[in-house]
Amino acid sequence: MTSAERKRRSRFNQLQRALQSKDVANTQIPAQLNAVVDESTRRYLVATAREQGTTVGRLIDQLVAAERHRQEEAKRPAFELVSPNAPAPQR
User: Which of the four pLDDT bands, split at 50, 70 and 90, describes residue 29?
Assistant: First the structure.
C-alpha cells in the first residue's frame, strides 16, 4: 500500500468516526477546502494562527463560530416592547 493510499484510508476512517460521533461540535475532520484567496489573506491567517498558538484550521473554526454568533445576535431584537400594564421588573 502506498503512502497516498494509507493517507486516503486514514482520512476516510477519521471521517467515518466523526460521522458516527454524537459530539459533532467538538469532532475534528480533515476538510479539503482548496480555497483560492489573496496572498494577504493567507498571510493573515497563518500569522494570526501562529500568534494564537493554533492551526489555520482551528482559526477558521473560531472565525466561523464568531460569525455564527454575530448572526444569531443580529436576529434578536435590540429591545423588547413591554405592555404599559405589565408589572415593573424586580431589581
Answer: confident
Look-up of cell digits 472565525: 63
| Burial class of 43 by CB neighbour count within 10 A (0 to 12, 13 to 18, 19+) | exposed
Q: What is the pLDDT of residues 34-53, one digit of tens each?
A: 888 899 999 999 999 999 99
Residues 6+ apart with CB under 8 A from 62: 54
Q: Which residues, other chains included, contact 46 with Cβ-Cβ below 8 Å and sequence gap of 6+?
A: 56
Whole-prediction pTM value?
0.61
Terminal CA-CA length for the chain: 69
Separation between Cα atoms, residue 5 and residue 13, nearest integer Å: 12
Q: How far apart are CA 88 and CA 80, in angstroms?
A: 14
- 24 Cα distance to chain centroid: 12
Secondary element (H or E) of residue 52: helix 39-52
